[in-house]
UniProtKB/TrEMBL annotation:
Name under which the protein is recorded: Amino acid synthesis family protein
InterPro entries per the UniProt record, alphabetical: AA_synth_put, BB2672
Organism in which the protein naturally occurs: Phreatobacter stygius
One family name in Pfam for this protein: AA_synth
Length: 193
């Protein structure tokens, strides 16, 4: 199966505060969006799983680009997420092809990354907005890291394309104070708590 990439877009936010006091260290929150031809657009295909294997190198390439944009240090990354936006000629199941290639590539690069990678998959036209959920990479219940990032690429996805996205951050919300499990209190190392 051929993976035909049209473009890769990388974006990084440097958050210095969120209305409260200036942070000692800005939080970097970034995404990589990869736009590619959907080989199944316009028709129903019973078995699409072969595409997951074909996408694995792209997952690693995108993860590597995003990590580099956030400074290159895997130990600095605290949270992550992924998503896909399928053009009108495809179906939701085509977006789900990103679960393994995107999620496992980030985990591989980050080393210890125990928690499930939160995900969003939806259909959309060119310029549609994809809100990618983010949570802590080692414990999904770390409340300070419940967040997200909004991604939009003006000319994507075309009807016969898919936009696959990954997100990573170097911290939680800037002024988190809603209680719950904190990063320094992760104890079970089970991906949840």
């Amino acid at each position: 199966m051929t993976v035909n990439v049209r473009k890769i877009v990388v974006g990084v936010e440097e958050v210095r505060h969120d209305g409260g006091p200036k942070l000692d260290r800005p939080i970097l929150k970034g995404f990589v969006a990869c736009v590619l031809k959907n080989p199944f657009a316009g028709r129903y295909e019973a078995d699409v799983t072969g595409m997951m294997e074909a996408l694995k190198p792209l997952g690693l390439e995108c993860s590597t680009k995003l990590l580099a944009a956030l400074g290159g240090d895997p130990k600095a990354i605290e949270a992550y997420g992924k998503g896909s936006l399928v053009g009108a000629g495809g179906e939701l199941e085509h977006g789900a092809l990103w679960h393994v290639p995107g999620g496992y590539a980030m985990r591989e690069l980050l080393g210890q990354a125990l928690s499930i990678v939160p995900s969003m998959t939806k259909m959309g036209a060119m310029g549609a907005i994809l809100d990618v959920p983010i949570h802590h990479k080692d414990a999904a219940y770390v409340r300070s890291h419940f967040d997200g990032i909004t991604i939009s690429v003006a000319d994507a996805p075309r009807a016969d394309e898919i936009l696959f996205a990954l997100a990573m951050t170097t911290g939680g919300r800037p002024h988190a104070r809603m209680g719950g499990l904190t990063q320094d209190a992760i104890a079970k190392w089970d991906g949840l708590r």
